[in-house]
Design brief:
Layout lengths: L2 H6 L7 H20 L3 H5 L2 E9 L6 E2 L1 H11 L7 E14 L5 E13 L5 E15 L2 E11 L6
Parallel strand pairs: 1-6
Antiparallel strand pairs: 1-2, 3-4, 4-5, 5-6
């Protein structure tokens, strides 16, 4: 390998493909925490000073503590046998010079009642700004746009 080739070899975990894979794994783990009702652990995937904005909410939620409180309230479900799944797809990532990553995904919220076919409850666009946290990532800013509430 020549000196020129050596300079072109990226460090582990810093190429766009590696970051993309890390973000995909992060979203899989994050969604499963939410879907399995592990809300405290799910909230811990956001920074302490996070911002969570959704066009279905009256105002943005700021801080991890407020996000957890809102999530606990929103997930009080009185429907026995109801399963909720969040499916992140069509994700693109854009590493930024400041070390953050901008990620854009389509997210489907799928509901399923026992012994009934699943159905798409929500179709959304999710925009995140993620920051490194050791060997993983945290969401600093999330914007959710429900398709039925958006003209775009």
């Amino acid at each position: 390998m020549s000196v020129t080739d050596t300079e072109l070899v990226p460090s582990l975990g810093t190429t766009e493909d590696e970051i993309y894979l890390q973000i995909q794994r992060f979203y899989a783990a994050q969604s499963q925490l939410l879907d399995f009702g592990r809300f405290e652990e799910w909230a811990a995937t956001f920074t302490e000073d996070c911002s969570f904005t959704a066009n279905g909410f009256p105002q943005p939620v700021r801080t991890r503590t407020a996000l957890l409180a809102g999530t606990l309230q929103n997930h009080k479900v009185d429907e026995p046998g109801l399963r909720i799944r969040h499916w992140f797809g069509m994700t693109t990532v854009e590493p930024r010079a400041d070390g953050t990553v901008y990620a854009l995904s389509y997210v489907l919220v799928i509901r399923n009642h026992r012994n009934e076919p699943p159905f798409i409850y929500r179709s959304t666009r999710c925009e995140d700004v993620l920051v490194r946290n050791g060997n993983s990532w945290l969401v600093r800013d999330r914007i959710i746009r429900r398709d039925e509430l958006t003209d775009e």
